[in-house]
Queue: 2 jobs
Job 1
Amino acid sequence: MGRRRRILLSGGIMSAAVTPVASKRPEDEFLGVGKSLGFGAQHVLTMYGGIIAPPLIVGAAAGVPAPELGLLVACCLFIGGLATILQSVGIPWFGSQLPLVQGTSFASVATLVAIATQGGGMPAVFGSVMGSALIGLLITPFFARIIRFFPPVVTGVVITTIGLSLMPVAANWAMGGNNKLESYGSVANITLAGFTLLVVLVLSRANVPAISRLSILLAIVVGTVAATVVGMANWGNVGNGPVVAFPTPFAFGTPVFTVAGVLSMTIVVLVILTETTADILAVGEIVGTDVDRKRIGNGLRADMGASIISPVFNGFTQSAFAQNVGLVAITGVKSRFVVTAGGVILVVLGLLPILGRVVAAVPTPVLGGAGIVLFGTVAASGIRTLAKVDYKGNMNLIIVAASIGAGLIPIAAPTFYDEFPTWFGTIFHSGISSAAIMAVLLNLFFNHLTFARQKPGSSVFVAADRFIDLSDVKSYGNLQEGDRIVDGRIVDADGRPVQVRDDNGSVVDVKVGRSDGEH
């Protein structure tokens, strides 16, 4: 029975039983089965290209045959659906209960390719994913303290490097994907890739939002049809295998755990936790609901918990998809059950390995043309993050320069670390790991250690305030009687800042000092 309170009515007093009713959160609205499935399908289409690309990249790097690539794609769809349901529905300790779509993280691709090509193959890949996700799960309670070491200057560098690290993959796809084939690098392959890229650009310009958002997926379809017409597509393997099947646990072998692989993937996991935190905060703001530390923790645990289970069903590290956060903002559909419906659709697709074989049959030049935009978008997202960084009066410029440079070394010279110990090469052969380690260490050194902080004007890399000599102050014609210098700034008689203009009439931000450096 609810609590009782006294209510005054028309001068009299009566007693009433009142049951407190919790206010309904916007994300808890249920739109009905039909609408939920419809909007859920839109979420799936929006992220479909992003969720199938990682298994194709990693599987090809590990030498997985084409028919088994289809199995890998189906498995990633299946585990992505389960992770999405966990995140949106939620259980105690796991799931933010927000409209967040989960899927294979792009951030892990470059590092997983490095692990696969260092001789470990798919077992080492799955072991590294499982081990690093377990570490990620253990540190989620303390992540609020660690996250301060991943400001935009670090995450921007890492995201930019992710995109740049994947560009050689797009180029290799555009050339044919297999340098042992006679057609590798042929004009026909590159023309097909260029045609697909052109279709992406044209559809992106479409005035119909649905077409524009699905430009990459539609371009892959158009490019594949064109390849089929000219005889550049092979559909022979599509019928080899079952139409419906449950993903076989450990189909590619028992996971193998290596220290170097787990360590390098742990770095990626820290980046993923940072990105997912940002996505949780962003979607919370879009939906208009409260997001506290507990809810963030539940969301991160869902990420890592799904990533631990993922290798069992031949999947990779899971994370929230930022493009679907944007879709929530565009459509205004805030219901988390819409995303749950999308997760159900992904699970169903994952139970159809024939669909995976169809995807695996898409000609690699088509994927290359789409990949140029897809991977370039990742790099552009990182650049956008770096644009928010404050470069004034600090060493952030050198942090970005050195970190991106370190990340590009293994891309520009893949044999750079061949003479180093195996564990070292596994970590630093990945451009993302190299960039992340450098960015974190330099950020600690320059921005957190007091003795390493630079004074304005003491380094060519510091974008310092403009200084003028005290003897030059009178040369600025807009100064008036009563203006004076306070803490190195020019203020008027009332203490208000004075706009100082140069000879061209432009307002300049100056500090006033003497030529000996004092001010």
Note: Confidence is low (pLDDT under 50) at residues 1-22, 463-471, 513-519.
Job 2
Amino acid sequence: MKHTYIFCALLSVLIMPGCKSDMDFLTEKPATFYTIDNAFSSSAQIDQELVSIYSQLRDLWANPSEEGWIFVFRGNGTDMFDVPSIRRGNTFNNYGNINPDNGTFNNFYSTWYQLIGKANLALWSAELSNITWASPADKAYAVAQARFFRAFAYRNLGEIFGGVPIVTEPVSTPQFNFKRSTRVETYQFAIDELLAIENDLPVTTDKGGRLVRGAAQHNLCELYLALGTQLAADGRAADANAAFTKSIEFGNKVIDGGTYSLMKTRFGSRATEAQGNVYWDLFQERNVNYQDGNKECIWALQIDYAAYRAEDGKSKLPYSRTYSPVFRDGAKDHLTGTAEDVGGRGISQIMPTMYTRDEIYAGVWADDMRNSDIVFRRIFNGNVPSSPYFGQPVPWSVMYNGSADATTNMNNRSLCYPVSCKIATDKYTGLADGENMSNLFRDDYFIRLSETILLRAEAKQRSGDKNGAAADVNLLRERAQCGYMVTAADMDDKFNLILDERARELVYEECRWNTLLRMGGTIAVERIRKYAYWPEAAATLSFNYNLWPIPQTVIDTNKDEPLAQNEGWNR
């Protein structure tokens, strides 16, 4: 079509000589494809730009394309997750291979700036004179979503990389002189963005997935906590305490504001089934969204099976495939197959460390709904007819230590582990259509009230209120019907209790790198050395860091303005 148009235009010029100057003739005036100058002519097109950001974030969380760097984003290489023996080459714990040239760092960095670029474009286009809005509120909500996304990106960049360049306008020409802000300035920019649009976001929406006010308030709770932590590290104690007070204030808005509450009784699509409990209900199909009656959900990514079948092959959670164990390799004499009884068609791209699967539930911590078999399944009946455990539970001692060879046992332990209800189900959607128990087709959480509670608990502890911190943690432990309630004495200064409770409550939900690096000091490296599954971490992590390195390619291409590398990475 485009070639036909150009040919006809040229022909008309040739048969009418002298009508236009050579310069007019040679000046390209495209009318059949979009440029930055003509791409936006309606508010609906701006909304589509926002939808593209929602889509990018969905793919970042769910990782339907199984990109290795996104498994790091979701926790590979932290205290909580490592790789099994069959993925040893994908480890993110061998610091002989981890340096500023590592592609994972660049993928993180560039992805958040891609999102910032989309948000900046949406904000720029929203002010075009030719755009007609249904109402001022309609425009305000579009602008609020774009500014939220921009703040969200900078919050992530600040937690992971520290101070980064603040870009607030679309960039249409190459630029080589970006200037780093400080980490405090990065956090403050994100805070200012969210404060500006907090009241332009609706309290609730009719449909799941769109941003609401609670999402901004949750992020303000986290940002003020992060800001206070950095200010304290900079020796600014009074400013730090003021930031912690603001963190608690925004946590209060979410937790005590009347919109959200912890789910404490059975609810949703499978509430009448005897086998479940309320924590299990949180992760069943048609139960995730606030609109489904789940008052704990603040913001969720949207998955639609009909869309997956019709046109959107990425509308899925490939969690059973990417996160579930591989018993058929690690315990092949007793367990095999890819059905519900072994957690689906798992290939284990990353696996929970021994800390995540066992240590956080040792001793007094064992009595916990989140450690129940329906939530974190530990009972697997042998399904190999020749096994002495056929039809009976296979002991973990057999799966973990069934060989006379220590290396084989370590490999097997990496392949065999409990299965969370967050990554597998006993009722897979789509089997009649040819689905093979690789994917879940439920929505998933970006933000759940439990994390807001844990952020507020940390802010209280950092402000000196250990009793208040313990009380917040116990809100979750009471819901989980735990046998042990924590006290102020449990709230240690290394934040181990907070981090352990986050692991119990938010496994497969939180982005652990953000949490560990946000806490500063040597918390991240100490926990990685202690809890990493394979010995490479302890052997090669010979330096301290509390930020990831600025990607070397970013430093090299920003040739007109030196970008300082983060401490620990100039090696």
Note: The CA atoms of residues 402 and 409 lie 7 Å apart.
